[in-house]
Amino acid sequence: MKTSINAWSVKGDTGFEEMFAQISAAGFDGIELNVDAPGTAHGLYMDMTDGDIAAIRALSEQYKLPVVSISTSLTANMWGDNDPAVREKVKALVRKQITFAEALGATGILTVPGGMNDSRSLLTSWKNSVQAMKEFGEEIKGCKIKVGLENVWNAFFTSPFDMVHFLDEVDCPEYAVYYDAGNMHAFSSSEHWVEVLAGRIDKVHVKGYKRNHGSINQGGIWCDITDADIKWDKVVPGLKAGGFDGYLTAEVGKVDADQPWDAYYKMVRDQVASICAYAD
User: Fold this and answer.
1) 3-state helix, strand, coil in the chain (%, to 5)
2) pLDDT at residue 55, as a whole number
3) pLDDT of amino acid 118
4) Under 8 Å CB-to-CB from 143, ≥6 apart: which residues?
5) Burial of 206 (0-12, 13-18, 19+ CB in 10 A)
6) E strands along the chain, which residues?
7) Would you give the DSSP letter of residue 124?
8) N or C: which end of the chain has fewer CB within 10 A?
9) pLDDT digits over 132-181, tens only?
């Protein structure tokens, strides 16, 4: 397996060239970029030109740091919205992510189904998300970019069986699981998700989480990847046994204000490399 880092983990005012140079120097094998609202120095935006993207691709090649996937902060609540116009907006966003992925050499993207609120139940959000994704699935048939559905803290996927059920309902091979190995650790065990989702996982986020008292449903704290009580020695071999052998992408934040950024990047790279070693 290989090491990667999400651009959200990079200092916010860092431009693209500086970011590629620093992340490459830290020893990472790849990087994940994000489609965001305008304002981030190294974010991708909906109105970026072909020339903008070509310049980023040139930096990726110059620093020998592949763009491995395209995430986004903009899909929250949209797939499950009752308004068809909102669901069309999220389709346009995912189209753009796919276009960026193709142009930058990435093989997958991230999106988040769901979106419950006081006026929209889990069942309604599920039905809306399935309908919209089935419609979009017809459009992307044959696409070589995998559309990865992530398990996040939005109460939509609370079990790996939910993800299996959802993908089976959507019934489109271009969809896969974008698995976050830390996002369920407060209430479940990551190695169990990996077993259930075997053969469906296309991309992986890693982060650290430590449970209070070592018990589920007792809360906990975010921590360094290698300080977590996630059983990486079971998760990573489980990923490989299930057919995944790609990048483990760190999605983490710097917490020590006194730590230099270059030291932080190297620390995260070494932490990801240490859990990658469990695949050997």
Assistant:
1) 40, 20, 40
2) 98
3) 92
4) 98, 174
5) buried
6) 2-6, 30-35, 67-72, 108-111, 146-150, 175-180, 201-206, 208-211, 220-223, 247-250
7) H
8) C
9) 999 999 999 999 999 999 999 999 999 999 999 999 999 999 999 999 99
**Whole-number pLDDT of residue 29:** 98
Whether 249 and 6 have beta carbons less than 8 Å apart is answered as yes
pLDDT band at 113 (very low <50, low <70, confident <90, very high): very high
Cα distances (angstroms) measured from residue 9 to each of 5, 58, 124, 144? 7, 22, 34, 27
Query: What integer best gives the mean pLDDT of the chain?
Result: 97
Helix crossing, 16-25 with 261-276: angle to 10°? 50
Nearest 5°: phi and psi at 251?
-125, 85
Structure tokens at 275: 């859990």
CB proximity list for 59: less than 8 A, separation 6 or greater = 16, 17, 20
The DSSP output letter for 95 is H
Question: Contact at 8 Å (CB) between 190 and 184?
Answer: yes
> pTM for the whole thing?
0.97
Give the number of residues written for the chain: 280
Residues 6+ apart with CB under 8 A from 102: 144, 145
What pLDDT does 31 receive? 99
Read off the amino acid at residue 177. V
200 band by pLDDT with thresholds 50, 70 and 90 = very high
Provide the b/e sequence for 133-149 (b: ≥16 CB within 10 Å): beebbeebeeeebbbbb
